[in-house]
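TICKET: design request
STATUS: open
ATTACHED STRUCTURE:
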């Protein structure tokens, strides 16, 4: 029981939900496939015990807590087959305080732990930097979210925990010699690597380091070596950097770097072809091509004098799609690391998605060709997590309920107009005689935006106002005709709440 309690404390996460994954098969890459489901209940001790005992489905824990903090995170390396021993050796060589465990599909989960909760965003940044140094950039990072909209029915993504069926587990911690660690040995590895705080590892910025003022991917590759089969691409990327850093003598530097950082060096003929190509024009860094893709750290790169800057990839990074079964459904998607709530139409219609990104993230994603957009959305849907409906969900967990709530707030709780001319000042004027609130639609829209409510098309806005009894109208204000909406005033409570009486026969 003491071991179980320790394991629970190490992997403590969300207290309001947990995850299950029902395996149904394998994909072409060897990764287990199935259905991921988030259960809206606390992960009980019995569930943790069942995990230890090997009961299926195994337990998944959401690392991000309700206050957007966490005490653990993970790099999910879903590469099959994967040399687990080589990975552990590389982690030790780089001095990274990570504990690696075999995943259920034979990949690796590289865990970072802290003694006390830290912001989920800090854990994300740290593990992103670790993944880049390991040449594993682009892998899934847990927690997947920097924040979650718990009040709206959102929650984070779960990770299947190690040590399932602990006595003969295949999800074991990996020792330095590549063999499986026991549970006690895992605890020892945890104690040796748990941190008080996390400082993101970075390639040395010293001026004598290679590419110290350029992309960290190239700096890491110069230190670790360029993989066989990608050396020409690597030299081409180095040439792009050298043209920026040494505009007068970059060709000589190309020869120098070839001798210094390539083993064996590229042949003079190969090098001449690369130089000739680079002379034609100024190229952008090819961040999506190997070998630099695997070592990419865009946030750090943008800080470097000769990094990507504003020249880097501009396509938004979309991940971690979740569907909450409200009516209508709510969708939660990570866009460039920020959690965004969307309606179905914003996923179906690329233009609506772009509008949502502009309003909520101040970013306009580039327009993709329709097949590319559909392929991206289908990819997200295939990995989607379904959020189990909250049993006692209130109306404000639905879009329509939230809309009604904000309309009521706008028409009753904000500063009211003393006379109808103040409608032109963005205020709501209440016609007491007819018991209707009068306002301009653009002022309501501004209120919705201030409260991070998603964009509604004009027809949908009109439809929902009509459902509340509203009617469009015109009014003469200060010499001109103004289009307004008239909405029946919401009921107000003008008597005190009844004090409940408790009977000894009815337990509460």
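STATUS: resolved
RESOLUTION: sequence designed for all positions
ATTACHED SEQUENCE:
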């Amino acid at each position: 029981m003491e071991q179980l309690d320790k394991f629970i404390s190490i992997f403590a996460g969300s207290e309001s939900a947990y995850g299950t994954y029902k395996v149904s098969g394998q994909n072409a890459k060897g990764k287990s496939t199935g259905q991921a489901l988030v259960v809206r209940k606390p992960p009980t001790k019995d569930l943790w015990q069942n995990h230890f005992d090997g009961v299926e489905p195994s337990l998944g824990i959401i690392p991000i807590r309700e206050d957007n903090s966490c005490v653990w995170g993970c790099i999910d390396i879903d590469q099959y087959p994967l040399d687990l021993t080589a990975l552990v050796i590389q982690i030790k060589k780089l001095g990274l305080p990570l504990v690696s465990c075999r995943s259920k599909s034979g990949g690796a989960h590289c865990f970072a732990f802290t003694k006390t909760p830290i912001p989920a965003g800090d854990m994300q940044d740290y593990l992103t930097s670790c993944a880049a140094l390991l040449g594993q950039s682009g892998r899934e990072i847990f927690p997947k979210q920097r924040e979650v909209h718990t009040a709206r029915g959102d929650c984070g993504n779960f990770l299947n925990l190690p040590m399932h069926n602990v006595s003969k587990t295949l999800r074991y911690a990996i020792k330095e010699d590549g063999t499986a660690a026991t549970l006690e040995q895992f605890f020892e590895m945890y104690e040796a690597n748990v941190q008080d705080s996390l400082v993101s590892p970075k390639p040395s910025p010293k001026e004598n380091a290679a590419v110290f003022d350029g992309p960290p991917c190239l700096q890491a590759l110069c230190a670790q070596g360029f993989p066989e089969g990608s050396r020409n691409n690597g030299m081409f990327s180095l040439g792009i950097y050298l043209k920026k850093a040494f505009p007068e003598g970059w060709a000589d530097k190309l020869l120098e770097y070839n001798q210094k950082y390539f083993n064996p060096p590229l042949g003079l003929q190969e090098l001449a072809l690369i130089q000739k190509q680079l002379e034609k024009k100024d190229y952008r860094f090819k961040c999506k091509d190997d070998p630099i893709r695997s070592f990419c750290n865009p946030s750090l790169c943008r800080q470097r004098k000769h990094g990507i800057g504003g020249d880097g990839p501009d396509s938004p990074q979309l991940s971690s799609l979740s569907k909450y079964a409200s009516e209508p459904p709510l969708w939660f998607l990570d866009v460039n690391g920020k959690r965004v709530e969307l309606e179905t139409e914003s996923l179906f219609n690329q233009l609506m998605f772009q509008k949502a990104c502009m309003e909520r993230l101040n970013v306009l994603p580039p327009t993709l060709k329709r097949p590319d957009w559909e392929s991206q959305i289908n990819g997200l849907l295939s990995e989607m997590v379904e959020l189990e409906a909250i049993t006692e969900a209130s109306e404000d967990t639905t879009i329509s309920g939230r809309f009604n709530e904000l309309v009521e707030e706008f028409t009753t709780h904000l500063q009211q107009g003393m006379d109808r001319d103040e409608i032109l000042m963005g205020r709501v004027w209440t016609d007491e005689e007819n018991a209707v609130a009068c306002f301009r639609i653009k002022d309501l829209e501004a209120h919705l935006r201030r409260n991070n409510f998603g964009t509604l098309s004009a027809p949908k806005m009109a439809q929902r106002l009509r459902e509340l009894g509203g009617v469009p109208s015109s009014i003469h204000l200060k010499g001109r005709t103004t289009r307004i909406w008239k909405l029946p005033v919401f009921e107000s409570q003008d008597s005190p709440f009844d004090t409940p009486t408790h009977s000894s026969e009815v337990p509460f």
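CLOSING REMARK: Confidence is low (pLDDT under 50) at residues 391-397, 493-508. The two ends are 32 Å apart (CA to CA).
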